[in-house]
Predict the 3D structure of the following.
Amino acid sequence: MAGRIPEQFIDEVRNSVDIVDVISQYVSLEKKGKDYVGLCPFHQENTPSFTVNEGKQFFYCFGCGKGGNVFKFLMYQDHLTFPESVKKVAELAHLQMPEGYGEAAKPLSPLKKMYRQATEFYQHILLTTKVGERALEYARKRELTDDLLKHFKVGYAPDDDKILLTYLQQKKEYTDNDLRDSGLFVESQDGQLFDRFRDRLMFPLGDESGYTVGFSGRRISNDKTIAKYMNSPETKIFNKSKLLFHFAEAKKAARSEKHLILYEGYMDVIAAYKAGIQSGVASMGTSLTTEQVYMLRRITPNILVNYDGDPPGIHAAERATKLFGQVQGFNLGIIVLPENLDPDEYVKKYGKEKYRAEVAGALSSTDFLLERLANQYNLHNDREKLAYITAAVQMIAGLNDPVAADLYLDKLARQTGVTRESLKVTFVRERRKLQRARNHQQAYQASTLMENIGETAEPKEAQAGTDSETRNPALDRLLYLFIHSDEARDYLLSRQFLFPDERYAKLAEFWLKYHQTHDEAEVKGFIDFIPEELQGIIINMEMITMPPDYSKRELDDQLRALEKSKINEQLNDLLNQLKEAQRKQDNSLELEIAQKVIALRRKKF
């Protein structure tokens, strides 16, 4: 049985990395004052509420409430146990785990384990068996080298209706329901299972952590009655709208390449990889979704869209551009390849260097949309030219950046031969229209919100138990000083002070034990020492800016504030009892409670 990871090693691992560096591999962070902010990876949001404090080595999301140190982040992000998280951070820090560490690793779910084994099985067939020779020859013709096949874990599903089924059944690790739920098989009317993928080159589809959760199979025969591509059906672990091909690898490359490139299909991603571009991702056979847009935004604001150069691809790029425009903060570029070529075709025809030049010359999203708009009009006809100018100015008026608006007005003036002054008059008029529309929309939303608040607001009595209502600033301040100052702690203990809230009292006890057993007791290590249900109090307390300096007078004031708060609670309780006594017309009880209220009020003042 594996032992516990030594606390000394855990401290060493935690202190060997910077939480900003680790989280930056998952979230695009921007320095704001002393903190870093970004879009939370744990829920969808338009405005960044995810904060990382480098000094304290904590993260906290003010939107969903998740927070903690570097271990906790990876536990949330990659669904790891604590020992697994320590191991992963140790690997990032290039530290060797001690022998016999921690608890046994959390096993993969049956479906993920099945897909991992299927991936290895299909690749083994492709690269090492006679059955796979024909598929390997096809891969070579598509210029897929051994390095590419191994990087993308490409395999081959033979033209055999039960080869994968037999392989997995022999392992005796899966129930019949596991096999049915996997999406790897189809079921006949009499209940028999057969391999879903046959005679196809198999491209694994990985989740954000890199685990295979589905496949896309490419037909290698010339039989056009069979679909060229076949994707896994959606399962418990595979949702096409929430997956991007090559995302786990591309987000690492985004740190050096400074962007992600969005493609239509996985062969385009592979073609880009051959050209030295490792930051490519692709949606799998579906239009870009809002979920995928948020996935990209978390990694970097710099996104390039390189769809096929044919009319359907250009139309899809236009739709994607508008979808990206609904989320704040993107620096979007559009790559339009000539001759209706897709990236795979372009690289084969013109080579890596020219393709990289196309990437470097990506259009801005506004340039791209204006070009698309111009193609809808005959600019040699004055009537259509005027219609184009009106539509173009309306588009430019919607830009939030005044510098960008000036730039595109200048371009439009040169393109159409109309003076910039004339365009500016139209621009100002359109800007006013947009502002009026926005003001109207905001007023409508505000009135609707107030109506909803009026309909759904709960009585104060029902809300009194919420965490935000019960959180006491005096408690937070006293706990902060109890932990961060030996003198303040000694003073509070000399006053025989006990935290009135049971959670805070437990934290004080835990800190005393932790402080006594650790030479360098720090909050970033203490968080791993306490129960999970108490960690939120510490994280909230640490993310609030509190002065480290204090005086005994302040401590006394905070203690008095707590005493007053306790009296207020007792008063509220007595006043509720008084109302009940009045309702029952119990005069003697009413007098008794009134005397208690008077006594408490005197004590308060």
Summary: The first helix runs from residue 7 to 15. Residues 449-469 have pLDDT under 50 and may be disordered. Residues 577 and 583 are 10 Å apart (CA to CA).
